[in-house]
């Protein structure tokens, strides 16, 4: 894979495969959606299922939003304030609930463990339409090392 190099802002643009590898290394992200006319951001524990993001939810805001199949943004980042480095990947796509029983059973095998208390029996999927990632501070961030070098 070639290094796309810095953009005109001095940030390193990541290639699509680099973005997906970065997401594979993490388990906590944020889903952003518009609710009642206001932008909202929710932290979620997630797993990848191919080229989509899956997380579990209780009844509530995210589940209501999923009924409408809205476009959402899902973001994971990693930063070091000490070294002023960071990496951020954003998946843009449609949010929907997975209702097929066999598919839900398969998704249970992904091992998504929500940190929030209570039953989170609904599986929500962000079907990626596009993905983008940028890094700042260290070129190694785009090679799968991330902002903390690990």
Number of helices: 3
Structural class: alpha+beta
Arithmetic mean pLDDT:
86
Radius of gyration: 16 Å
Strands of the widest sheet, in order across it, are: 2-3-4-7-6-5
Poorly predicted runs are 144-150
Q: What kind of sheet is the major sheet?
A: 6 strands, antiparallel, barrel
- N-to-C span: 20 Å
Oligomer: single chain
What general outline do the C-alpha atoms trace?
globular
Number of strands: 7
Name its key features:
7 strands, six-stranded antiparallel barrel, 3 helices, 44% strand, disordered C terminus, 150 residues
Briefly characterize the structure.
With 150 residues, the protein is α+β, with helices and mostly antiparallel strands.
What can you tell me about this protein's structure?
This protein is α+β, with helices and mostly antiparallel strands and 150 residues long. 16% of the residues lie in helices and 44% in strands. It contains 3 helices and 7 strands, in the order βαβββαββαβ. It has helices at 16-24, 61-67, 101-108; strands spanning 12-13, 28-35, 38-48, 52-57, 71-80, 85-98, 122-136. The protein has a 6-stranded antiparallel barrel. The longest helix has 9 residues, at 16-24. The protein is globular and about 45 Å long.
């Amino acid at each position: 894979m070639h290094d796309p190099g810095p953009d005109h802002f001095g940030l390193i643009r990541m290639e699509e495969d680099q973005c997906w590898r970065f997401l594979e290394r993490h388990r906590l992200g944020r889903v952003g959606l518009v609710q009642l006319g206001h932008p909202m951001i929710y932290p979620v524990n997630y797993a990848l299922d191919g080229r989509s993001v899956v997380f579990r939810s209780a009844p509530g805001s995210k589940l209501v939003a999923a009924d409408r199949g809205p476009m959402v943004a899902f973001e994971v980042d990693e930063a070091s304030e000490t070294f002023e480095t960071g990496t951020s990947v954003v998946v843009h796509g449609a949010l929907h609930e997975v209702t097929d029983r066999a598919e839900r059973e398969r998704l249970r095998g992904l091992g998504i463990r929500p940190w929030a208390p209570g039953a989170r029996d609904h599986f929500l999927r962000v079907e990626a339409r596009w993905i983008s990632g940028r890094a700042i501070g260290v070129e190694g961030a785009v090679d799968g090392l991330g902002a903390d070098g690990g």
